[in-house]
Design goal:
This protein is an alpha/beta fold and 307 residues long. The protein folds into two domains: 6-217, P-loop containing nucleotide triphosphate hydrolases (Rossmann fold, 3-Layer(aba) Sandwich), CATH 3.40.50; 225-306, Alpha-Beta Plaits (2-Layer Sandwich). The chain contains eleven helices and 14 strands. It has a six-stranded mixed β-sheet with strand order 6-7-8-3-9-10, with helices on both faces. A four-stranded antiparallel β-sheet has the order 2-1-4-5. Strands 12-13-11-14 form a four-stranded antiparallel β-sheet, with helices on one face. α3 (95-105) crosses α4. The longest helix has 16 residues, at 169-184. The two termini are 30 Å apart.
């Protein structure tokens, strides 16, 4: 088993009577990208802030690269990079000046600072824009600059709090490619995101809601739990089709996916045999109903109802 870069055990953070994080257990190994996935208010950001030492835990333990947090936070931060949700660079400084500033914060000077800055500008694809003020960057370029500054001290563990929020699809794709390069170098990455479509990129997914980890596993393992239980229905009018499908005794849940409906069923074959007739009787025009592979969103919606 490889060395743990991050380990939390029974981590709890209370704000008054509210448990923002409730007994969270996490592990991140070298070369692994773990995703904290859940809606706003799930506790993802609070968990990140506990790990970087910005908040003190109510109870439980945190170890980063073998160091206890918060007791050994200065040592832990030598191995920790953090990209917060909000843009935290100095807007009146250029890209190059921001990198220089963060290098000095970590005591990186002289030729080594120049070398690392050059490497990171190239890595993030920012070398052509190094003299542009950070405030003038697009959302995607700001995220890349944030990533570069978080990597200036060559941390073993990188924490990214909703790194692609507000970023266009092309920039999101470029950002994920950068992270894959880090994993190949042996770094560990913990990412929080509310986007279920991004969760398939992670080695392991931790679904969170109301401060708790509901489920932990690889995307394939998690989706396999609903194999043979998800049906796709294409019918019009969709609202009426939704009502008819929800009334079927073997349909547990119905969710809209664009112009189609996903049905989670206890007995999908029974639904396949029974539902077309019910739809016709209700005046619904059905294009098709068929088995489809479950998505992580299907898994999460199932979790919310059963946990």
């Amino acid at each position: 088993m490889s060395e743990l870069l991050l380990e939390t055990r029974d981590l709890v953070k209370m704000f008054g009577d509210h448990a923002a994080v409730a007994g969270l257990n996490l592990e991140v190994h070298p070369g692994e990208m773990v995703g904290l996935v859940g809606p706003d208010g799930a506790g993802k950001t609070t968990a990140m802030r506990l790990i970087v030492g910005a908040l003190h835990p109510t109870s439980g333990s945190i170890r980063v690269a073998g160091y206890d947090v918060p007791a050994q936070i200065e040592k832990a931060r030598e191995h920790l990079g953090y990209l917060a949700q909000k843009f935290a660079m100095y807007g009146d400084l250029t890209i190059a000046e921001n990198l220089e500033f963060y290098a000095e914060v970590f005591g990186i000077t002289g030729e080594e600072r120049i070398k690392r800055s050059r490497q990171l500008l190239t890595f993030a694809g920012l070398q052509k824009f190094e003299n542009r003020p950070a405030a003038a960057l697009s959302g995607g370029m700001q995220k890349k600059l944030g990533l570069a500054t978080a990597l200036i001290h060559q941390p073993k563990l990188l924490l990214l709090d909703e790194p692609t929020g507000g970023v266009d699809p092309v920039a999101r794709q470029e950002f994920w490619h950068l992270l894959v390069g880090l994993l190949r170098g042996g770094s560990g990455v913990l990412v929080s995101t509310p986007y279920m479509d991004e969760a398939t990129r992670f080695n392991r997914v931790v679904f969170m809601n109301k401060g708790k980890a509901l489920l932990n596993g690889t995307p394939r393992e998690l989706m396999a739990q609903l194999d043979g239980r998800i049906l796709e229905l294409s019918a019009q009018p969709q609202r009426l089709a939704h009502q008819v499908a929800q009334a079927d005794p073997d349909v547990e849940d119905v969710n809209a996916f664009g112009d189609r409906l996903h049905l989670r069923a206890r007995d999908a074959n029974a639904v396949m045999n029974r539902l077309p007739g019910a739809l016709v009787a209700a005046g619904v025009s059905m294009a098709h109903i068929r088995f489809v592979s479950p998505t992580l969103e299907d898994v999460f919606m199932n979790l919310l109802e059963t946990k």
